[in-house]
Amino acid sequence: RALVVSLIFKAYLAISSKLSEAGIIAGDAIPPKERSGAELFHTPTLRSAQLFERVCSDQPVCDPIGRPEVHAAALKQATGEAIYTDDIPRMDGELYLGFVLSTKPRAKITKLDASAALALEGVHAFFSHKDLTVHENEVGPVFHDEHVFAAGEVHCYGQIVGAVAADNKALAQRASRLVRVEYEDLSPVIVTIEQAIEHGSYFPDYPRYVNKGNVTEAFAQAGHTYEGSCRMGGQEHFYLETHAAVAVPRDSDELELFCSTQHPSEVQKLVAHVTSLPAHRVVSRAKRLGGGFGGKESRGISVALPVALAAYRLRRPVRCMLDRDEDMLITGTRHPFLFKYKVAFSRDGLITACDIECYNNAGWSMDLSFSVLERAMYHFEKSYRIPNVRVGGWVCKTNLSSNTAFRGFGGPQGMFAGEHIIRDVARIVGRDVLDVMRLNFYRTGDTTHYNQQLEHFPIERCLDDCLQQSRYHEKRAEIAKFNRENRWRKRRVAVIPTKYGIAFGVMHLNQAGSLLNVYGDGSVLLSHGGVEIGQGLNTKMIQCAARALGIPSELIHISETATDKVPNTSPTAASVGSDINGMAVLDACEKLNKRLAPIKAALPQGTWQEWINKAYFDRVSLSATGFYAMPGIGYHPETNPNARTYSYYTNGVGISVVEIDCLTGDHQVLSTDIVMDIGSSINPAIDIGQIEGAF
User: Fold this and answer.
1) How confident is the model at residue 252 (pLDDT cuts 50, 70, 90)?
2) Domain region containing 595
3) Residue 421 to residue 414: CA distance in whole angstroms
4) Looking at the domain assignment, is residue 485 inside a domain?
5) Is 598 part of a structural domain of the chain?
């Protein structure tokens, strides 16, 4: 109703402006401050600049490190020639799998009848939990608390109840709608964090706490205290390529899987579990993904496992690629969070203590929610030093699709709370938020609430650079003038500093492998444990190998990520893909260089191709494996207190100017400046692309 009134008023201002221009009404009929209320937003002319560290021009030509090399698959992707999972040509005898999804958020299945679907010509099989043992049906990325097919009870809307294998997609989807499922509703149905708190619906072993200093004493001595709360909702991943899998039986007891996943080894392990095959008879492959953002780290199993089971049982190739609505129903989102905090601070805004409760909405199964919560608990203070801290964390169990990894993995949610706290403090003490930020910033040598010392903390420099680059102080004066002169349109500028820890929260995942094969013509085939999701990981790995071997990038090719090339891979996630896989690639290159060293010494004027040819005829192995384990991490307050939680931190500052239309709520970002400290970039073009894409 308020919007309708606003739109009518907006029309009145626009019409009055036209009448005034035509001389029909007085020119001053509408006061100057009111006139901009008639305007609408238009997309401005986009202007941008990217600044990065230039490498020395005297570097060797075949050293591509630090240079803005073009993404290895950019041209293929731009022209549509790049092959994704569902672009693999259909095979002889291939079937399509259509899913039967739950239409209740929490209910007991009283009847499951697929006879009408199976009666259709071209429908070959129906699969449900009855086709698996209880053990085979229980799956999950860490805890096996999920099911391939719902077993007797559904826990969320969109849970997979069964699957129909048919000749084509249209028939499979039509048949799946004919499967009759009858339910008996169960209660309570819990959807929100507040409902979970009300019913005490938490996963076992929660809450968990992280403590530093003496919070109670700090509150007793504080000049000011304040209690507040904030929340962040969920978010769809909306990768351009939905979840997809193609399974091909290669022999009576072998399966090959092409899957759109960030974690091929996880798919291999769970397919082996569901089919009761040993892992060495299952090969999981991923050539490239059309986006992931964390949504394909663990949730790929929702599609891959039923597809693999159907292919194994029917001895025929089986395919499935979810429609967008199916994908959004079946898979979870970013974790919604609720934060309740109490903060103590001095009269000038120096924070002395914080007691904060973090609640995340996990959905119906654990998935990776425990790790997402931990990262939020470790990132809530952002770039600000708080000497006395108590952080409590709760993983809420609700009747939603299981929420999962999503870019930042709990970090953005925790930082969101930190920015609320710093602004609350600035508002109460009546100081500029920038001054309060500077007063509370960590300094090099400070220790976090999880006992990690900050060996190098450049946030002040990032802030100063960004303030200068964005003309922050000039813009503030311009914004104040604009706001005085316009009643219905307002502008504000925001400054956001960040500190993000680089490492997997689970220690064993901080490892990677590689395989380097050199052929007789000198060409190099490189395999590593990371997955190309569009982020340019393969391009960076080629650059690393080119420098290490001293050869042009054009001689190196990466075909795919496959579990028969590099086993036991970690997911491509947590912003460590290029770190750990790059080090594994270097390890393989160093082994090969050692073998070639005597040949290079004997033929100092030789070319790469001549050295390789000589090595082959001298029976020197031209294949090498590489491995890397991230050192010095694995912090645990009792068992490993001296280790680090994160290998290092990336830091950055963003400054944005936003304008809002007070009548309609419409808004527009007018300008953004970002300064990121990521060390010396392997490939500035790709890293800037990642930063801009994230923004």
Assistant:
1) confident
2) 511-629
3) 11
4) no
5) yes
